[in-house]
TrEMBL record:
Function noted in UniProt: Cleaves peptide bonds on the C-terminal side of prolyl residues within peptides that are up to approximately 30 amino acids long. Has an absolute requirement for an X-Pro bond in the trans configuration immediately preceding the Pro-Y scissible bond.
Keywords: Hydrolase, Protease, Serine protease, Signal
A single GO cellular-component term on record: cytosol
UniProt-recorded name of the protein: prolyl oligopeptidase
Family statement drawn from the similarity comment of this UniProt entry: Belongs to the peptidase S9A family.
GO BP term, pick one: proteolysis
Organism of provenance: Pontibacter indicus
Xref: SUPFAM superfamilies: alpha/beta-Hydrolases (SSF53474), Peptidase/esterase 'gauge' domain (SSF50993)
Pfam families given in the database record: Peptidase_S9, Peptidase_S9_N
Length: 731
């Protein structure tokens, strides 16, 4: 397909994990467990939370009366802004009082300051790549004539704003590399604006396309297709429900008001349409979704025929279909139709019935992930127990070879055109900084292209994968990372992070933020819970409604495994997750509050009865269910974090994280949750919320904000575990 870099995930939630970067040898050689618990308890006892008002609001769900006293926090007005300011004052006063927080920030700043590169890609015979010098808020796009020539800055997103909060979100060159369309997002919002640069001169044209969401520019001749909503009503544009997605065509040199409406469905307000053209611009492909569960319909238009209309290839939402590209007049499609671990099929769009499909690469025991068509070869990435394998086939599906990888980890890349003879990929793992390799397609030769240099002895750490037993007997894999020679004494500070939903797979990747935790003797654990895509659609469905409780049980069992096997104890365990993972943490802490000392639900879906009423939340109904359905309401009400906080229960020390510009999971989820927690939770642990200003769901967050966020996070963890990581080590 036409190469479009889209950095904001469309339709659903994204996995918000520790940012990926690098680090240095620590001045501390281990964790000092000299207790600061008494000090932490004293600090908590002195906390005075804002007086959050309650309103008389009760909803009736099929005879069950549910109070919603903090409904007023769902709006965006001056009163809510004042509440945000008051909550942040309490939180940052607490964080500012942690004696070693500045040392953590200093250390993070030092180890974050390393050069980070993206894999090169070719356009118009030239090479382009992203690079961050170390502490730049946003990575810069460079261009060079050859791999050996001097790179020049092509596009610098750091110039979009003074504070780095306007990010590059999409990039697409036209077929002849005459123009490039790029998207920007302000303050982390999902709303995008597209503009155009003339490649030869670097001149920005007058073209501007606004109110784009869940889309990418896809070129056809002298313009591009994109998808948008109507401009939202003023006053609450970050929370309004998104309905009636439309596909348009923008011609270069014309105002947006003249853009051609290509497709809409006035009878289906909750459908999303994502348009892409094939590399040769023969076909326009529309991926049609009604939710974020992964299943989609597939429409097409033959652009060679000016009289052709958009027609369905698949017009139901039972399976997932992803067009890799066309081979002549047929489409190469990755699908899990009758293949839960995915297969490749060739579909004639004029005869789209399944009996006419040709199976090119059948399903095997591993999960097929990203597929590219480069240099006359099909390059397919697979997951085996959440780690990558790469297999190369000819276009008839004959296996030719496997791509040699340096270790167990995660691969990304292999982009290119059908006739390219080379491509690049990036390999990473928990303690293996992202490293770029060049792949000679005809000769199946892998060579090191660029190694990331970090000031950390990554050989000092080890990674193991264990399989533990969940509540119902299911075996669940978990990666555990720590220093070599770790003593299993039940006293190691441990961070347990997971996601568990939306068919999203968590695979080994390098995080500079996590390295600070590891170098100070901490343990990092990442289980692959049901609801994810690590073992295909069956694994995903095992964690969808009405089976969502399986995900929470898997997470609870992971914590119990770490405690039972003496990695840690309840007093030294922190649990974290973002977005759908924020829901996971919220359910964990309300179901098993005694099991962890610290909880960090970030940008989480906490109100399971009203999530579908805001922005794109309706798209998550296939994953969670809806409170509009009686049976699904009972299921949701049973685990909704907001509705399961009980009076007088001592919950873990909690740092809720959200952002005022989050229009994916609106911040009202976190606002209402922390208000309920502060009101009902028993004293003894702090219940705080950290609200980023001019930030969103996580994508495009500038480096400076990431460093501060993780300094605050680790400081909160250590403080409430009674650990000073920089105290003088005892002999």
């Amino acid at each position: 397909m036409k190469k479009t870099t889209v950095l904001l995930l469309a339709g659903g939630l994204s996995a918000v994990s520790a940012c990926k970067s690098t680090q240095t040898e620590s001045t501390a050689t281990g964790m000092n467990t000299e207790t600061t618990t008494a000090a932490a308890a004293t600090a908590e006892a002195q906390l005075t939370y804002p007086d959050t008002k309650k309103v008389d609001q009760t909803d009736d769900y099929f005879g069950t009366k549910v109070a919603d006293p903090y409904r007023w926090l769902e709006t965006h007005n001056e009163e809510v802004d004042q509440w945000v300011e008051a909550q942040n004052k309490v939180t940052f006063d607490y964080l500012n009082g942690i004696e070693f927080r500045d040392q953590i920030k200093e250390r993070l700043t030092k180890i974050w300051n390393y050069e980070r590169y993206g894999a090169p890609f070719k356009e118009g015979g030239k090479y382009y790549f992203y690079k961050n010098n170390g502490l730049q808020n946003q990575s810069v796009l460079y261009v060079q004539n050859t791999l050996e020539s001097e790179p020049k800055v092509f596009l610098d997103p750091n110039k979009f704003s003074n504070d780095g909060t306007v990010a590059l979100t999409a990039l697409a060159f036209d077929k002849n590399a005459k123009y490039v369309a790029y998207g920007t997002s302000s303050g982390g919002s999902d709303w995008n604006t597209y503009e155009v640069i003339e490649v030869a001169t670097g001149k920005k044209l007058d073209d501007k396309v606004e109110w784009v969401k869940f889309s990418g520019p896809s070129w056809y001749k002298d313009g591009f297709f994109y998808s948008r909503y109507d401009a939202p009503t003023e006053g609450n544009k970050l929370a309004n429900k998104n309905e009636y997605h439309k596909v348009y065509y923008h011609k270069i040199g014309t105002p947006q008001s003249q853009d051609q409406l290509v497709y809409e469905d006035k009878t289906k307000p909750l459908r999303n349409f994502y348009g892409q053209t094939t590399d040769d611009e023969r076909f326009l492909i529309l991926n049609v979704s009604e939710g974020a569960s992964g299943a989609n319909a597939l429409y097409y238009r033959d652009l060679n025929d000016p009289k052709s209309a958009i027609k369905p290839i698949v017009d139901n939402f039972e399976s997932e279909y992803n067009v890799v590209d066309n081979i002549g007049d047929k489409l190469l499609v990755r699908t899990n139709k009758n293949a839960p671990r995915y297969r490749l099929v060739l579909i004639d769009p004029k005869k789209p019935q399944e009996q006419n499909w040709k199976v090119v690469v059948p399903q095997n025991e591993n999960v097929m992930g990203n597929v590219s068509l480069v240099g006359g070869r099909i390059i397919a990435s697979y997951m085996k127990d959440a780690a990558s394998e790469v297999v190369v086939y000819d276009t008839n599906g004959k296996q030719l070879n496997k791509v040699e990888l340096p270790a167990i980890g995660t691969v990304g890349g292999f982009s290119g055109e059908k006739d390219d003879k080379e491509t690049f990929f990036t390999f990473t793992s928990f303690t293996y900084p992202p490293t770029i390799y060049r792949y000679d397609v005809p000769n199946n030769k892998v060579t090191l292209f660029r190694k990331t240099e970090v000031d950390i002895n990554t050989d000092a750490f080890e990674t193991k994968q264990v399989f533990y037993t969940s509540k119902d007997g299911t075996k669940v894999p978990m990666f555990i990372v720590h220093k070599k020679g770790l003593e299993l004494n039940g006293n190691n500070p441990t961070y347990l992070y997971a996601y568990g939903g939306f068919n999203i797979s968590l695979t080994p990747s390098f995080s500079i933020a996590n390295m600070l935790w590891l170098e100070n003797g901490g343990v990092y654990a990442m289980p692959n819970l049901r609801g994810g895509g690590e073992y295909g659609e069956e694994w995903h469905k095992a964690g969808m409604t009405p089976n969502k409780q399986n995900v929470f049980d898997d997470f609870i069992a992971a914590a119990e495994y770490l405690i039972d096997n003496k990695y840690t104890s309840s007093e030294k365990l922190a649990v974290g997750g973002g977005s759908n993972g924020g829901l996971l943490v919220g359910a964990f802490m309300t179901q098993r509050p005694e099991l962890a000392k610290v909880a960090m639900p970030a940008v989480g879906v906490m109100d399971m009865l009203r999530f579908h009423k805001f922005t794109i939340g309706w798209a998550w109904v296939p994953e969670y269910g809806s409170s509009d359905d009686e049976a699904q309401f009972k299921n949701l009400y049973g685990f909704s974090p907001l509705h399961n906080i009980k009076e007088g229960v001592k919950y873990p020390a909690t740092l809720v994280k959200t952002a005022d510009h989050d229009d994916r999971v609106v911040p009202a989820h976190s606002f209402k949750f922390i208000s309920e927690l502060q009101d009902k939770g028993a004293p003894g642990n702090p219940y705080l919320i950290r609200i980023d200003v001019r930030a969103g769901h996580g994508a495009g967050k500038p480096t400076s904000l990431l460093i501060q966020e993780w300094a605050d996070t680790w400081a909160f963890f250590y403080k409430n575990m009674g650990v000073n990581p920089y105290a003088k080590q005892q002999p």
